[in-house]
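thought: fold this chain, then report.
action: predict
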Amino acid sequence: MTDFDTAAHPGQLRRMDSTDDSGDDSGHGPGGQIPDGEGLNAFVLRGSRPSTIPVLIAVPHAGRAYPTSLLERMRHPGFASLRLEDRYADRLAEEVAAATGAALLVAHAPRAMIDLNRAADDIDWDMFGRAPDELDSYTPGRRARSGLGLIPRRLPGLGELWKRRHDEDELAVRIAQIHKPYHDCLAGKLAELRARWGAALLLDLHSMPPLGLRGGQPAPEFVIGDRFGTTCQGKLIGSAFAYFAGMRRGAAHNRPYAGGYVLERHAAPDRGVHAFQLEIDRSSYLDARLVDLGAGFAGMVGLLAGLVRRLAAEVAEIGRLDAAGGWPEAAE
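observation:
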């Protein structure tokens, strides 16, 4: 696969070659298309067939394939791209998937182009000059109002991201070529895992800037988001917290990140599809500048691999019990 990387000098891009993303007849491999991206795919799905564990790791915000046309429109392309990215969360996910056998879905399209953790109608239409006729009286959603809707508009400390307004036709292409096929792929893989194992777990992997002290206590290194208990069986969330506690790593629940559109759309714990969002402090695996991989990268891979193995066994047990007719009742 070919993509573009901002690691060396923010704002100055270099082209690099990475692993082969050639697909197969099973639907695994590359998917979607990046507009003006010289044929680059928007995402890639990897994993063994049949699956070896009932876990899918998805990384929607680490894409680094920036077409020239996108960069030319951005006011501060280097700094804005780094702020928007979940920097190298895909590298973590690739190593963890290789170590555990988890399926892996990684977006190459950058968040600056389209945010895959937003609904397709979560749009700030002021960025386009006007709303479509049927939305003349629209009210932007909460995320769009914050500046981080389907097409990010502004960032704290940087202000407006774009030099000029966007075109409606451009938006339609991004949705059709990136957003829709990504979510179709994600739904299809979860259904496949659910059919094989009786249950499936989506781990939606993100990274966050260091949170700082909270109430005089050390900041958590991880935030587990399950939309306040609605997207994942409590047993799995409790197991994740127990794991981090046993490893002496601090974790918070739903605050400040409870999960977004990915969980809202794809989680269905009553039908055996469990999902949670995991935010990781970037300083735990990046260097002091939060730009390149740091000394903590290998340790973080090992930590996350242990979590995935633990949860995979528990999800498989949930599926087995569901297939057998549910949890055994206590004796009278």
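thought: worth noting. Residues 1-20, 327-332 have pLDDT under 50 and may be disordered.
final: tokens above.
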